[in-house]
């Protein structure tokens, strides 16, 4: 029997509640629509490439409301921000949806007026770097100017409305002739890092320092959410090499030194752990991927598991693909075809997307 999407089935896999702050368990397994303007302002980076392609193909961006994101958002709503850093760690098997759950949470923080410090993939900071230069500030460190400049550009897009309000607490000297004075807008510092690529790594450090100093303060304070995808990439080995072919240690990278997860206050950390460069592909638990050093740095944290699709979530995704006319093979529209997709994907979101993707 061929399955069809009728108007009454829309309420099954779609919700009209597009504000992450108002979503609840009654919306579990349903897709909400992200306003087109938010893709530029909230997600200039961070969304998975295959999801971005899907958004272009479907001419809309929808995110499924899932338990991990709801749990994380619930924690953020109830948290006491007069106390030290809150850490929440998303973990799960490969393809279970950790990145999308993190992005859902980032969307919530952005709509609530938080300043969002989003690091889309920490692993990119420790591998395949196009340009690695000796630091002009610390002789024992290395800069990644191109990556730093690109990150600053996206940070500026995401938090543009904060950049004129936040004033620098100290003076920063770049060269004998160039400096950024105390009291100047943070945006001036960010602009300098974008335009002066050579100094961009040091500018990232200065920006993070200012945010740590000012987040949550009583005078003009703001809430700061730090969202790090693949946070386990900040510890362990890198694939980067020095001129003498010896490996670069993570602590020798300027950007990783700047990304201090130990002593930040008034910040909610929402990292996710993903497959590591040197860990078994089957590893997914925090202690397996973070290692001893990473686990100690993150501890204490609230673990938030990300599981495979439930029956309801799979059904919702299946109906969404039918609604978008994405399942073209006649057999895929039958009950037997649906069972075959369940068997082949094991309800893994990423595997299901690839099974149903274009050739």
Automatic annotation (TrEMBL):
Keyword Hydrolase: no
Domain of life: Eukaryota
Chief location of this protein within or outside the cell: mitochondrion
Molecular function GO terms recorded: structural constituent of ribosome
Location(s), subcellular: Mitochondrion
Keyword annotations from UniProtKB, A to Z: Mitochondrion, Ribonucleoprotein, Ribosomal protein, Transit peptide
GO biological process, one term: apoptotic process
Database matches in InterPro entries: Ribosomal_mS29 (IPR019368), Ribosomal_mS29_met (IPR008092)
Gene Ontology CC annotation, any one: mitochondrial small ribosomal subunit
Family classification: Belongs to the mitochondrion-specific ribosomal protein mS29 family.
Protein name from the UniProt record: Small ribosomal subunit protein mS29
């Amino acid at each position: 029997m061929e399955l069809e999407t009728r108007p009454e089935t829309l309420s099954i896999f779609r919700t009209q509640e597009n504000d992450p702050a108002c979503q609840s368990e009654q919306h579990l397994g349903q897709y909400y629509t992200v306003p087109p303007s938010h893709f530029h302002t909230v997600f200039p980076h961070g969304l998975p490439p295959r999801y971005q392609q899907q958004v272009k193909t479907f001419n809309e961006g929808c995110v499924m409301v899932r338990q991990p994101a709801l749990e994380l958002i619930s924690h953020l709503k109830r948290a006491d921000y007069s106390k030290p850093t809150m850490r929440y760690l998303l973990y799960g098997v490969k393809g279970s949806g950790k990145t999308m759950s993190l992005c859902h949470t980032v969307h919530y923080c952005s709509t609530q007026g938080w300043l969002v410090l989003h690091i889309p993939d920490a692993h990119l900071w420790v591998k395949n770097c196009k340009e690695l230069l000796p630091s002009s500030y610390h002789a024992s460190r290395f800069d990644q100017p191109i990556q730093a400049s690109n990150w600053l550009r996206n940070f500026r897009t995401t938090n543009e409305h904060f950049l004129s309000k936040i004033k620098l607490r100290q003076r920063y000297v770049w060269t004998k002739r160039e400096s950024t004075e105390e009291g100047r807008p943070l945006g001036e510092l960010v602009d300098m890092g974008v335009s002066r690529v050579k100094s961009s790594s040091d500018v990232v450090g200065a920006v993070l320092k200012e945010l740590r100093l000012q987040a949550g303060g009583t005078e003009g304070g703001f809430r700061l959410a730090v969202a790090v995808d693949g946070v386990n990439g900040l510890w362990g080995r890198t694939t980067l090499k020095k001129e003498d072919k010896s490996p670069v240690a993570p602590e020798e990278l300027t950007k990783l030194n700047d990304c201090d997860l130990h002593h930040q206050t008034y910040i909610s950390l929402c990292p996710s752990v993903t497959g590591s460069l040197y860990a078994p592909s089957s590893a997914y638990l925090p202690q397996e991927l973070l290692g001893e050093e990473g686990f100690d740095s993150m501890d204490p944290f609230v673990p938030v598991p990300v599981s495979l699709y439930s029956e309801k979530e799979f059904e919702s995704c299946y109906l969404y693909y039918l609604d978008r006319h994405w399942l073209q093979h006649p057999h895929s529209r039958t009950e037997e075809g649906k069972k075959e997709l369940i068997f082949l994907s094991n309800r893994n979101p990423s595997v299901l997307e690839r099974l149903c993707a274009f050739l």
